[in-house]
Design brief:
The protein has helices at 3-34, 48-72, 77-101, 109-132. It is mainly α and 133 residues long. The chain has one domain.
């Protein structure tokens, strides 16, 4: 396998893991909005139970993303998982900073929890892959 092919597969593994979290999370959000479980888009969601629900499925999806990334990695699956975990953590911190300083869309603990759980959730997904392979 050529180095450029390996690099391409590495980038794809991390990218697809990230896209999986985003697509699954947004699709679930949309479904819960359509079912009138969540308030309409753009309105704050203050219910602790609903925020905990969102945190739960996002955590599950993040674990799945770590698993997927490790599964697709051409070599060193946990290195790919670590890269995805860092990207997810940076994105989570950026989202938390935005939510805490600009937007008022719900309780302050929720975006912080997303940022804090990003790395361990992705890592767990990678470890689950490693345990099964």
């Amino acid at each position: 396998m050529s180095p450029s092919s390996t690099l391409g597969r590495s980038i794809a593994a991390v990218f697809l893991g990230f896209v999986a979290v985003v697509v699954l999370s947004l699709a679930t959000d949309q479904l819960l909005h359509v079912l009138d479980i969540y308030p309409p888009w753009g309105q704050p969601m203050w219910s602790p139970a609903l925020n905990l629900l969102a945190l739960t499925y996002r955590t599950v999806y993040t674990v799945l993303a770590g698993y997927l990334t490790a599964r697709l990695a051409p070599h060193a699956p946990m290195r790919h998982v670590a890269i995805l975990a860092v990207i997810g953590t940076v994105a989570g911190v950026a989202g938390a900073v935005t939510a805490l300083t600009v937007a008022d869309l719900g309780p302050k603990w929720y975006p912080i929890a997303l940022a804090v759980t990003a790395f361990p959730s992705v890592w767990l997904g990678g470890r689950l892959y490693r345990a099964g392979s």
